[in-house]
């Protein structure tokens, strides 16, 4: 029996993560529910002792709210919005998932600020060994490429990573042995789809650059119009 969800906890006004994966879990059940989806995740070695109903757990980088705690994991409801913009709906029973509990005021920020609000789905193009590490090449959706910078941060299936190379929509990551072992990167192959969350600072910077134009109706659909000409006209580039 699923317990009644009491709503967000009073001490969780803002949910954030670090992108440092705490455990590997596994999908053990998926249930269509009124047009969206309910999933059950076995959390493996993740300590649930401090988790309550209404808490958030990043699951492959997707912020999901705990609606039931059966003892060995949690149930979460996945909205149509989340199904449309992430890979959660593609997960089959038995699929491994990256897990991270939400930050608390005492948490160490080991990665970068991650919201768990996925921006889009990318694709693994290739992987190859590089000494003890592995190099992964991925492709981002065209509308997200502008937010991905050399040596900048990106979150892939909830994992905080540094971008080593960018070429158009494609970017490259160097994954060390520990990350390969402790995350689902070991399962990636050419064609694997992944959840991408770009650096939130890049998102806010775009809105700041737009200035008052950000308030114009339908500006969201035109945010990609930022160009060198736009920056020059608005005083961001010197002649």
What is the element layout, followed by pairings?
Layout: E1 23-33, E2 36-42, E3 56-59, E4 62-68, E5 73-78, H1 80-85, E6 96-101, E7 120-130, E8 133-139, E9 153-156, E10 159-167, E11 170-175, H2 177-182, E12 193-198, H3 200-210, H4 228-233
Antiparallel strand pairs: 1-2, 1-6, 2-5, 3-4, 3-6, 4-5, 7-8, 7-12, 8-11, 9-10, 9-12, 10-11
Q: How many strand elements? A: 12
Low-confidence stretches: 1-13, 219-223
Oligomer: single chain
Measured on Cα atoms, how large is the radius of gyration?
19 Å
Task: Give average pLDDT, whole number.
Answer: 85
**Cα distance spanning the termini:** 67 Å
Main sheet record: 6 strands, antiparallel, barrel
SSE-based structural type: mainly beta
How many separate helices? 4
Strand order of the largest sheet: 1-2-5-4-3-6
Q: What's the SSE pattern?
A: EEEEEHEEEEEEHEHH
Percent of residues in helices: 10-25%
Strand content: 35-45%
Overall morphology:
globular
């Amino acid at each position: 029996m699923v317990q009644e969800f009491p709503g967000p906890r009073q001490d969780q006004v803002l949910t954030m993560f670090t992108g440092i994966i705490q455990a590997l879990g596994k999908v053990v059940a998926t249930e269509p529910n009124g047009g969206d989806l309910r999933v059950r995740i076995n959390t493996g070695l993740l300590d649930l002792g401090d988790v309550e109903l209404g808490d958030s757990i990043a699951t492959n980088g997707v912020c999901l709210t705990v609606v039931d705690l059966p003892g060995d994991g949690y149930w979460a409801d996945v909205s149509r919005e989340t199904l449309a913009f992430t890979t959660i709906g593609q997960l089959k029973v038995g699929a491994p998932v990256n897990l991270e509990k939400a930050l608390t005021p005492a948490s160490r920020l080991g990665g970068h600020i991650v919201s768990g609000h996925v921006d889009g789905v990318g694709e693994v193009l290739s992987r190859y060994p590089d000494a003890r590490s592995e190099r992964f090449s991925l492709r981002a959706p065209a509308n997200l490429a502008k937010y991905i910078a050399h040596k900048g941060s990106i979150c892939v299936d909830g994992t905080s990573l540094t971008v080593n190379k960018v070429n158009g929509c494609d970017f490259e990551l160097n994954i060390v042995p520990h990350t390969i072992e402790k995350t689902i990167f070991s399962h990636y192959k050419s064609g694997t789809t992944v959840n991408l969350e770009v650096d939130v600072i890049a998102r806010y910077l775009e809105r700041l650059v737009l200035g008052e134009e950000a308030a114009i109706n339908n500006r969201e659909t035109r945010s990609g119009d930022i160009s060198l000409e736009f920056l020059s006209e608005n005083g961001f580039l010197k002649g």
